[in-house]
Amino acid sequence: MLKVLLSGCNGKMGKVVTELIESENNIEIVAGIDISKKHNKFPVFKDFKDCTIKADVIIDFSHHSMMPALIDYSVKTKTPAVICTTGLDEEIIQKIKDASNKVALFKSGNMSLGVNLITKLAQEAAKVLSESFDIEIIEKHHNRKLDAPSGTAYMIADAINETLNNSKEYNFGRYGKSAKRNKNEIGIHAVRGGTIVGEHTVIYAGPDEIIEIKHTAMSRKIFAAGAIKAAKFLANKTSGLYNMSDILK
């Protein structure tokens, strides 16, 4: 039985992860981390330092402010962690990279298998089209999302840029009377409204033709399912930093 410590267990994603795990065999939540306590079927601690229950893997859907404590706990207890929280700054990302030398960590800008697949497709398209096509990314999310652009938009843009030897600059939206597009940029645009779960479109606009690669999330379950899949993948791995590409292989 795979034992999970669920960070952010009482948030929206934490609840979805809990529901999916309860419907599966050979995996269970043995404890949770959250600032609020509700009627959970497992003990919940406000901070990692208070947690006294050993787990095989951590699944994290919390807040970027929780990352230092999570990483320290993961290293101290040698507990692998699936980090699903987005909006991380460079300092935290570096801390994750450093910690991965001591413990197995899994990080992805999006836990959906479909999103990670279209990211690979976007890379392949960029190899063929970048010389004569402009590249734009539009992401849409619900009106309560805090960070913009989304971690997924950054993930897609970074993957494309890596394919193109990091030759592109990012332009976050356009405004004004001198906003003409530069050839060496990737435009990234954020839309916020209603209850949109998540939508990402990569546009390749060329001479007289347009190609679009698009992913639409219909519910949060796809992200929870991806996180659970990652937890099962990570449980017995040696130290290192893993992502969805490792699962897709």
TrEMBL record:
SUPFAM superfamilies: Glyceraldehyde-3-phosphate dehydrogenase-like, C-terminal domain, NAD(P)-binding Rossmann-fold domains. One of its GO terms (molecular function) is NAD binding. Residues 3-111 form the Dihydrodipicolinate reductase N-terminal domain. CDD domains: DHDPR_N. Its EC number is 1.17.1.8. (S)-2,3,4,5-tetrahydrodipicolinate binds at H142, G151, T152. Its main location: cytoplasm. Pathway: Amino-acid biosynthesis; L-lysine biosynthesis via DAP pathway; (S)-tetrahydrodipicolinate from L-aspartate: step 4/4. One of its GO terms (biological process) is lysine biosynthetic process via diaminopimelate. Catalyzes the conversion of 4-hydroxy-tetrahydrodipicolinate (HTPA) to tetrahydrodipicolinate. HAMAP family: DapB (MF_00102). Homotetramer. This is 4-hydroxy-tetrahydrodipicolinate reductase. The lineage of its organism: Bacteria, Bacillati, Bacillota, Clostridia, Peptostreptococcales. The gene is dapB.
